[in-house]
Amino acid sequence: MAEILNENAIAILGGTGDQGLGLALRFAQADQTVVIGSRKLDRAQQAADNVRGQVPGALVEGFENADAAARAHIVIWSVPFEHTAGTVKAIRDTLQPGQILVSMAVPLANAVGGTAAHVVGIWQGSCAEWVASLAPKGVEVVSAFQNVSAHRLQALGEPVECDVIVSGAKDARSRVMDLCTHVPGLRAVNGGPLGNARIVESMTALLIGINIRYKVAEGAGIRITGLDLSE
After folding, report:
1. What is the tens place of the pLDDT at every residue in 24-39?
2. Residue 121: in which H helix or E strand, if any?
3. Could you tell me the domains of the chain?
4. Burial of 56 (0-12, 13-18, 19+ CB in 10 A)
5. Model confidence pTM above 0.90
């Protein structure tokens, strides 16, 4: 089993997609060490080159998914829903107890020929809970980042202005909430246990529908009002 090389690194599987790349850019901009994973090595390396081109001096590398997952304590899952089972299988042997796997995938119906404004039902209740059922014992799965617009993430000169609802076990949830402090405009909201991910994932489909109806090209986000998150 591969050794975790950097306790403070952030791996992003699917970091070649719009949302994953946006997170990679934001974390690199905040001087975090970023590892981008893809099913194809050349695509991961191209994405890393893209990040370095936009963020001079960025600490970022690209690897195949399994190698990327072995190089960071926190592994963000930005993989399309339809590739969930295959990707977990590909990285399972490299994951180690104590790592945190952050699920931001959503079971959108377009994966099965429907519309992205709807979700499909999953026996486990949510994509995050499905990932948890597939992950090795000792790997904590946390749900986060589903509702953050890729367009806003990639607009590096502007704050993102969105709340991130984070659900999962207490200690792992706290670690993931801390990641949000690196991105201007993001606020982490304690979403409680992982079971609440099914609600958050459904909100993604709702936001997609809102974007379509109101023609919001940059992507709508969410804000939870009445909360003092200053402490």
Report:
1. 999 999 999 999 999 9
2. none
3. 10-214 (3.40.50.720)
4. exposed
5. yes
